[in-house]
Design a protein that fits this description.
Helix content is 55%, strand content 0%. It is mostly helical. It has a domain of 60 residues. Helix 1 packs antiparallel against helix 2. The model has no long low-confidence stretch (mean pLDDT 75).
Length: 121
């Protein structure tokens, strides 16, 4: 379901981009959009009304699909397990620490590498 809504969302985004690019420029700052336009499809005023209405509809649907995707993501997040709860218990168990006097009296292991002798000058 989420993939279907996401596909519709992407199509609407591309549709909005296309519709905005097709609309006639009102400012005319660069001289773009002064002539031509939709050709003989409809009168310039009718084409502008159609494009404006289609853009508004696509924008509304885009907003609705955004809300639906947000709600779906929130519902999926609530169902997921947290990081700490999802961790498996450790396979290596540590031995409990005892503070008995016998443990303190055991000699330390001999180092595996010989220690350096101090200089006796």
């Amino acid at each position: 379901m989420e993939n279907v809504v996401l596909a519709i969302h992407l199509i609407l985004a591309l549709g909005i981009i296309l519709l905005v690019l097709l609309q006639r420029s009102e400012g005319g700052g660069l001289g773009i959009g002064q002539r031509g336009g939709m050709g003989g499809l409809a009168s310039p005023r009718g084409a502008a009304n159609f494009l404006t209405r289609a853009t508004a509809i696509c924008a509304g649907l885009f907003f609705i699909t955004s809300l639906i995707l947000g709600i779906m993501a929130g519902a999926q997040h609530r169902q997921s397990v947290g990081i700490l709860e999802g961790m498996a218990p450790s396979a290596v168990e540590t031995a409990p620490v005892t503070s008995s006097p016998a443990a303190a009296e055991t000699p330390a292991e001999k180092p595996s590498a010989p220690l350096a002798k101090p200089n006796s000058e």
